[in-house]
Amino acid sequence: MLQLEITPVEQWLGTNDKPIIISGPCSAESEVQLINTAKELAALNKIHLFRAGIWKPRTRPNSFNGVGEKGLGWLRTVKEETGLLVTTEVANRKHVELCLKYGIDILWIGARTSANPFSVQEIADVLRGTDIPVLVKNPVNPDFQLWLGALERINNAGITKLAAIHRGFSSFEPTPFRNSPMWELPIELKTKCQSLPVFCDPSHIAGSRDLIQMISQKAIDLDMNGLMIESHINPQKALSDSKQQLTPSSLNRILNSLIIRKADSNNKEFTDKLELLRNMIDNIDEEVIQKLSARMEIAEKIGEYKKQNHVTILQINRWDKIINQRINMGAAMGLSKEFLGDFLRLIHKESIRKQTEIMNAITEKAG
Ligand code: PEP
Ligand code: MN
């Protein structure tokens, strides 16, 4: 169990609601856009915290980089006019100092920043002696220790009003998501540090509006404390992340559609645990399928390569060696030799079938 010292989120957000809902545009673009979005969101009576990026970490240069300091003034106006608490992303000492000066309620550390211990430490150093709550997004790469390290650095600076945000991870393999959820990482975090609130950011996992409902439901089923969902008064015209932002009214529809299990169910503890375990199984199955597909693609490439070099598909010596190594490795990890042998032989059979298809295809073309 991890020794983070955490102040319960109910105390610093002033609500017992679950899930907690954080929403607002990816970026503050103009005062009108910001205030109008905030007013529509406030009118839903479901939003606990208003978000907007002022400094935007863009992948490519010459993209919209955020409006900078003047956006902090707009956020202050949002707070005055709607009563919503406000949060923005910080990536360095200067950002933090300005946010403190403008009375921003809560800070968040973005995925690119939490991947860099120098930056996180710089932020932690300037936060020392303050009491402002901080939300730490997972680093872009699926490195659990790095995420934990970022949370620890902020916590070691005396910030106990702390939460994590799961926003998915970059992955080399194609997935339906902009950032692969890899749910086992936030689950590991919740398991290792039970007092730490963990929010989910379905917008940056999805990358598109149509997946947000499904991801939000999954996050709630996994007992996440809340959701951070991007919303914009006119998503099509948004200067960043336009494909994934929702209008406040579509956000409302999604929030209304979510099934939130009743806290007073007799068997809640049992059903929660069961649901958690089933979700873990679902996620692992998804990953196994993705890996199998990647493996088959490589087998096809090998087939082509062998054909070009006049090598036979089957090289018995290599396969014998591989299957024994794999079976022994699996046995050391608690898998039965018989099961793993059957499984590997099945995969191998399918690889051979694919390679044969490739050989025949090429031969036909050549003929
Ligand atoms: C954002 O919240 O708009 C953002 C830039 O997120 P992330 O750091 O998760 O990419
Ligand atoms: Mn965004």
Give a quick summary of the entry.
With 367 residues, the chain is α/β, with parallel strands linked by helices. The protein has helices at 9-13, 31-44, 70-82, 93-101, 111-114, 117-127, 144-156, 184-192, 202-206, 212-221, 248-257, 268-308, 316-332, 337-366; strands at 20-24, 49-51, 85-90, 106-109, 134-137, 162-166, 198-200, 226-230. Strands 1-2-3-4-5-6-7-8 form an eight-stranded parallel beta barrel, surrounded by six helices.
Q: Would you spell out the secondary-structure blueprint of this structure?
A:
Elements: H1 9-13, E1 20-24, H2 31-44, E2 49-51, H3 70-82, E3 85-90, H4 93-101, E4 106-109, H5 111-114, H6 117-127, E5 134-137, H7 144-156, E6 162-166, H8 184-192, E7 198-200, H9 202-206, H10 212-221, E8 226-230, H11 248-257, H12 268-308, H13 316-332, H14 337-366
Parallel strand pairs: 1-2, 1-8, 2-3, 3-4, 4-5, 5-6, 6-7, 7-8
This protein binds phosphoenolpyruvate (PEP) and manganese (II) ion.
Manganese (II) ion is lined by residues 26, 230, 240-241.
